[in-house]
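Here's what a typical entry looks like (TonB-dependent receptor):
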Amino acid sequence: MSVQHAMTRSTGFRLSALALAIAVSAPLYAQTQQPEVVDVIGQAAQLEQALDDQRRANTIKSVVHADAIGQLPDDNAAEALQRIPGLSVERDQGEGRFVRVRGLSSDLNSVTINGTLVPAPEDDRRAVAMDVLPSELVQSLSVVKTLTPDMDANSLGGTIEVESLSAFDHDGLFYSLSAEGSHDENTSENSPKLSAAFSNRFSIGDGVDNFGIAAALSWQEREFGSDNVETGGAWDFDDGNQLEEVEQRRYDITRERTGFGLNLDYRPDEHSEVWLRTLYSRYKDDEVRQGLVTEFADPQLSGELGDAEVSRELKAREETQEVKSFVFGGKRQLGEWGISAQAGYSKAGEDSPGGIGNAAFEGNDDFSNIGYNGTRKPRLRSGADLHDPNNFSLTELEWEKQKTTDTEKNIKLDLTRDFYLSSMPSQVAFGGKVSRREKDNDLDIWTYEDFGDLGFSDAQLNLSGFTRGTTDYGLGRFGPEISDSAVENLISGLDRDSFYNEEESRINDFTIEEDINAAYLMSTLDIDDLRIIAGIRYESTRLKARGTGLDNGEFTANNTNNKYDHWLPGLHAIYQLNDKTQIRTAWTNSVVRPTFGQLFPGFMMDDDEAEFGNPDLNPLESANFDLGIEHYMGRAGAVSAFLFYKDIDNFVYTADVAGTGDYVDFSEAITSVNGESAEVYGLELAYSQKFSWLPAPWNGLLLNANTTFTHSDADIEQFDPDLGAMRGRSISLPGQSDVTGNLTVGWENDSLSLRLSTNYKSDYLDEVGDVLDSRYDYQVDDQLFVDFSASYFLRDNLQVFFEAQNLTDESYYVYTGSRRYNAQYEEYGPSYKIGLTLTHF
């Protein structure tokens, strides 16, 4: 069960008057009831532990907690986090992957595992894909939304803290074994999953149960797919909203996840602790994408017929992502002094050992009487000749190989001193951290074309020799399916070195080093019912970027150094109105470095056109203000409201800088630039309660609801050649939904648990298509996901469970201009799981 769930929509779906009435009256009634026996498993137990962590924290944070049998409420970390107020997820093929906090892009938030930063496997991102972490390896997930000076200042929305299983989470021997099977409605495929967790304590020396071992293992192989139709925004809005190009895509994916964690804890006495935390996660994707690309000779309206060039395309690649994390640390209390030290090593990587980047089979002639129906989900219209493989021949093939590594090493030291200031409990803390990070990318591309000159006959290149049946496509007629093995066999006998694409390969290779040195001073003071935390953090960043550019056919090394320093003050206050209610406020400052794709040191210049990264970008700086109230009541009960405001400088966006500075004579120069300023503000509301005072069976009812309203403004500008001057406009920050929310209704008793969950996020800006013309922006439509889960204890230690995900068959839709005009539409279908869990605790 997640920490706090809610669901609301700007229109058509709001918290009902009944729910609001319950939220007001339930705490008053609950406080008059007798204490109940507290269970340690299930939805209420997860909520209770999470709320307890949240209540005791010095920061504003939300928590998702596993219960006593080690179960998180969702299948992976991303989908568990989406239940938290202010959080939403970016999905890949229907699965939750990247997490956004308070409407801010996942690249602007950080992720730690057991206290050490997690690097990102992808070559261009800082965001960590949370679905690489199986839920079985996680004991708790926290999202810290207001940073204290002793924390890394590298997040604007929040820092996601992952804590893995420790033997001291249980009193003695604990183990859990699970097996499940899942069914994907889109592909009609069934997939297995196995997991296990174990922990126990042992006595060493004169101690009793002072040494703990905990281990967890998870393996899953899932076969699934999706159907897609997209225009890429190829609409001519200046000439009747006509379409220039449309593509149908079919994805078939085999996704394998393997996770392992081993944690050791040693507590020689009540004043000392030493620990080793390890985690390994492997995520392997085997993806085959069939494509049918139609480019109209002249832009067309829906329902019209005309001539078109058509090609059938194939992408087939295997991609493996790995995350490794090792943390060794300890702490010791020496009277009033406390000391803790930690060394962390994390490495993430993405390896594509070689695959078909694109194989294009173009039509031998233009096709006539080609058209489409509909602008939201265009459906291709054609004759039978479009689906005859004899009408297509292989014209070009790209073979790609890529390896990316992202390594982070750090050492951290913290000292604390407890004392009394005029009889008021106080603490001073100070320390520092040294971090070294390096991102490497190595891409190799081989381009095969002009096959006739290589000795291949027309018959050998005809698509009919590369097919294996008909593509299974749910959005219309697609035609033949291309065999990736047949394509690979064609080029297997060729000398690959003769086809090496040096230009594309070299300019995409880079190394970026990021060295951060930090120190802080922080003081905590308790004045009766008021706690004040004040301090300052200093961070010094040194960046080195090495890459290669192509300047009118000549390769040029591009080595760039950048450095900046930041003093980041912070002030937190927590005031206890009574033993159940507290007010929190915070003023914090944070700094976030641009993504590696934005800092990319490679470039390409061809006469008066250029495209390049910008290693000289300034980091994003934000002053953050938070104010809220929390009230705790009854079993798993809490209600809270928080206001937040962020004043951001130097946000980054993509722009054409042609006509300005060094590019005054260029017709196009695409790069990343710093904006002047942006602001984000919003309101978070959350409510949870178990209605244990109601008569049976209603005493098993749980309600968990939250909603977040967010608004952002950012100013962007670009040189307008028609005006001969800079022109700009205001946008929302990419990735920011105005409304996100969850609503979960659950019911449980000693043996049965039921949960119906909804997750909603309103539409948001995905990408600026043209700085000077908002019609070409890419906007993601709103989404509502509905999931159901049930579990039943067949015996005290044997549980059967069932889950149904995406019951509403929600799709992913990106539009441009208005909701009528497709940029991308993709649907996945629901999926189902059933399994068994054997537990001892």
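The mean pLDDT is 91.

More examples are in the samples folder.
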